[in-house]
Amino acid sequence: MAPAPIFPVKVGHIDDVQELRKAKPTTIPERFVRDLTERPTMATALSSATDIPIINFSKLIKGNPDEFHSEILNLTTACEQWGFFQVINHEIDLSLLESIEKVAKDFFMLPLEEKQKYPMAPGTVQGYGQAFVFSENQKLDWCNMFALGVEPHCIRNPKLWPAEPAEFSQTLENYSSRVRKLCENLLKYIAMSLGLKGDVFEKMFGVAVQAVRMNYYPPCSRPDLVLGLSPHSDGSALTVLQQGKGSSVGLQILKNNTWVPVQPIANALVVNIGDTMEVLTNGRYKSVEHRAVTHREKDRLSIATFYAPDYETELGPMPELLDENNLCKYRRYNHGEYSKHYVTNKLQGKKTLDFAKIEIDYST
Predict the structure, then answer these.
(1) C-alpha pair distances (Å), 334 with each of 254, 310, 317, 331
(2) CA 141 – CA 14 distance, rounded (Å)
(3) What's the rounded Cα separation, in Å, for the pair 244 and 224?
(4) Per residue in 309-363, pLDDT tens?
(5) Residue 144 and residue 114 in contact, taking contact as beta carbons nearer than 8 Å
(6) Measured between alpha carbons, how far is residue 105 from residues 95, 152, 217 in Å?
(7) Which of 229, 275, 309, 359 could form a disulfide with 292 if both were Cys (CB 3.0 to 4.6 A apart)?
């Protein structure tokens, strides 16, 4: 979570969607109603949840050589062709998944005045409210967010860590520690899938930045008019998403220009490639545009963990992945600089990645 912008941000009045839901308005406030071109249509249903790749983490950690090799190939395909996959047998205790889900839901169910003690200031991405809002006429997402910087400790804002629920902070500490270990391991295997040394990303990233964002999507009487979360790619290296049990199907990814729903698998975690990994792999593993939609009757909870290099890290395509047939597509830059660019722009597909792209002249 990069520093806040230095310019003043005027966002206008932002309705709290949970309070709107309680009031049951006959019409959706105009700021939430999307333009015709942005409104969600019925997404293409996949034949089964298994169409989105599934990675069996236990085969990577403790499988026999044949199982390990097979799962590395699966991981390669998942990263190259999808940029999204679901991880099963991830070795995070299911009781911990239940605990983090409970404290997140309990926080969102607090009275509004209690949640507003931890406000997300305009132009920032920590606290309770709506992130990525930078103008008074910008369309809003049908979502309440609560976001916190976790690691390293210098990015934390202790005033935003809630006193209620009482077990919130300790549960988040325990959960984040386990997810961090999962990210470290996944990056090791992703490096191997690229033919690189397993510790290359660990050495490059320094003290990796880790942040969590909890998202609560109340039911919406007109899900055809709103979006739960605007289309975007993540600025991270990896994002790990926990989808709440019993929640409506809300996550959709853009695959071959079609919005495809991600059907939750019980106890699995959804992992996606972020912009940082796209740059490092020179586009071999691409970040993928995704969004959230709402449901007329069901609410939805999700918990996203973002894992990225230290802000001081210089990033660019890795020389080992470049040759005369794979020319450099992205410039080198400071990761903190990109993070600030990312959080000070509204969510707009993969537009923020233009920051790093360079034009290649194939005529010479």
Answers:
(1) 28, 10, 13, 10
(2) 10
(3) 22
(4) 999 999 999 999 998 888 999 999 999 888 888 877 767 777 778 888 887 655 4
(5) no
(6) 15, 25, 11
(7) 229
